[in-house]
Specification:
cell membrane; mainly alpha; membrane; 11 helices; about 80% helix; transmembrane; globular; hydrolase; Undecaprenyl-diphosphatase
């Protein structure tokens, strides 16, 4: 599909705004006609936007956030992502659809169970970072929102909503940056400077929106996550 300059700018804006929210931003861009490789490459802009936000709002905890919620999950999830990326193309569409919807369903049910339990907040554990990496690896499945499934898992674990939002952004900074660099270096994916700038600015705004929701209440954040996952599931069912 040919894309006009206006469509590319719209795609850049959507990529930035949706990156940290529980909706598959990459899926939206592919639907708009952007090549898959360029969609991955533009994650460099959203990663930089998330980094700018964390540096401004969480400067004292920035190294700990990037290592604890970024690098450790990446180490756990990278092998899964590479295996899935290599095998996804050879799998029947029905199998991919089943895997995607199963992942959404499991995280959604876990989050709903947590909301119903109304228990106190839990403290993050090392296991949370490793499991988060597994979810990030599975998020390479077509139509899966990385931020959606990771936020749902952390919220279902009962972590403080501010920790949830910081973890989602920090993990996206590292994982998205790694994916973008890989596409640029390994496949030579192109990136328009204007599109990069628009995505960067929109990504900063998106990070601020998500953090503001998390700072208001855990219930509101859970509602946003559930709504995002349901919307992603509905879109996936309509488009397959």
């Amino acid at each position: 599909m040919d894309t006009s300059h206006t469509s590319w700018l719209l795609a850049a804006l959507l990529q930035g705004l949706l990156e940290w929210l529980p909706v598959s931003s990459s899926g939206v861009l592919v639907l708009l006609g952007l090549p898959y490789r360029e969609v991955l490459a533009i994650h460099l802009a959203t990663s930089l936007g998330g980094l700018v936000y964390l540096a401004a709002r969480r400067s004292k905890r920035l190294p700990r956030l990037l290592i604890g919620w970024g690098l450790l999950p990446l180490v756990a999830g990278a092998p899964i992502a590479l295996i899935l990326e290599d095998t996804a193309a050879s799998l029947p569409p029905s199998t991919l659809e089943t895997l995607t919807l199963t992942l959404y369903t499991v995280t959604l049910l876990a989050l709903l169970a947590r909301i119903a339990a109304r228990t106190k907040h839990s403290k993050p554990r090392m296991a949370d970072r490793l499991v988060l990496g597994v979810f990030e690896g599975l998020a390479v499945l077509p139509g899966v929102s990385r931020s959606g499934v990771t936020a749902a898992y952390l919220a279902a674990r009962g972590l403080d909503p501010r920790i949830v939002t910081d973890a989602v952004i920090a993990s996206g900074v590292v994982a998205g940056g790694a994916a973008g660099l890989y596409e640029l270096l390994a496949h030579g994916a192109a990136m328009d400077p204007i599109m990069f700038t628009v995505t960067l600015l929109a990504s900063i705004a998106s990070a601020w929106i998500l953090s503001s929701i998390g700072e208001r209440s855990a219930t509101l954040l859970s509602i946003v996550i559930v709504a995002g996952i349901l919307a992603s599931m509905a879109a996936h069912l309509l488009l397959v």
